[in-house]
Amino acid sequence: MTRTETRRPPYTAPARRTAGTRALWLLIGLLLLAAVMAASLAFGSRDVGWSDVWSALGGADASLEQAAVTKRVPRTVLAVVIGAALGLSGCVMQGVTRNPLADPGILGVNMGASLAVVTAVAFFGLSSPTGYVWVAIAGAALSALFVYTVGSLGRGGATPLKLALAGAATSAAFASLVSAVVLPRNDIAGSFRLWQIGGVGGASFDRIGQVLPFLLVGFAVCLLSGRALNSLALGDELAAGLGERVAFVRALAALGAVLLCGAATAVAGPIAFVGLVVPHTCRLLVGVDHRWLLPFSALLGASLLTAADVVGRVVARPSEIDVGILTALIGAPFFIYIVRRQKVRAL
């Protein structure tokens, strides 16, 4: 058998899905999200019966169980919102760069936002929660620009593997810088654990409200980019021939993704691999049409992060494992699989 015959076939997009198939997966996705949200309210360091869950949702807080559910409600909402933001931003990044390895964590965007927040607090006295969001978005944008610039150097331009390597190196460097800033400062070291690992513990509706406007704008921009991303998937020349302003569309969609990444990192820290695993899984379920793929990525991202948070609370009782650790355990093998087995060049 010749070398040509043994070579693995190149990456091919999943077959088109019918409207009925997509509707079925939408129903399954909604049921899955409802199930993991219910599990998030019922399970943790203290298990709560369903009667107490319903009572707590109705406003009761007379017992410890009901009080525990009341405390878990904002945590569950935060996990859903952040998971949706990371899943959607990862899908947009893959569409904008036509890079199947794109993910806010892999490309160093999340860690750039984390470094920006830590630096602003440690050296410039930033204390406003709303200021965290602006600084995180700026750090995410600068990090994305830096990684794309580095990945574009040399022959072949910004190939998927070069972007992944540049992003991984940048993320590692930024993580080291975060530790270098935090460790000498005993007065702030404890509060900055979030920006080193990533998690949704300590959530409150006040914190969610501070980042919600940024997230809503990011969601709107990304979801409205679906048709344009379909055109970009055909190649820049063909997209331009179809009437798309390629540079403007790519910049606008990237801005939406950066808004989602920056806001998510500001409130939950650098959670990686959700934006890598979720879009690839959604392509297998609903196909490659971004008008369907983007909302499905948000839905599945919300389910994945919420489920990971529940597992982290259950397996290490009475303590917990931060959700950023669990998503890394899930996503790292998936990343290796894509790089070594799929042999992908572009989407």
TrEMBL record:
Q: Could you state a single Gene Ontology molecular function term?
A: transmembrane transporter activity
Q: Does the keyword Cell membrane apply?
A: yes
Kindly list the GO CC terms recorded for this protein: plasma membrane
The entry's keywords = Cell membrane, Membrane, Transmembrane, Transmembrane helix, Transport
Q: Where in the cell is it found?
A: Cell membrane
- Cross-referenced Gene3D superfamilies, in alphabetical order? ABC transporter involved in vitamin B12 uptake, BtuC (1.10.3470.10)
Query: Its principal location?
Result: membrane
Enumerate the Gene Ontology biological process terms: siderophore-iron import into cell
Q: Where are the transmembrane segments?
A: 73-93, 105-126, 132-151, 163-183, 214-235, 247-272, 292-311, 323-340
- Tell me yes or no: is Zinc among this UniProt entry's keywords: no
Membrane-topology annotation of the record: Multi-pass membrane protein
Which PANTHER family does the UniProt entry name for this protein? FE(3+) DICITRATE TRANSPORT SYSTEM PERMEASE PROTEIN FECC-RELATED (PTHR30472:SF1), FERRIC ENTEROBACTIN TRANSPORT SYSTEM PERMEASE PROTEIN (PTHR30472)
Q: What is this protein called?
A: Iron ABC transporter permease
* Species classification: Bacteria, Bacillati, Actinomycetota, Actinomycetes, Kitasatosporales
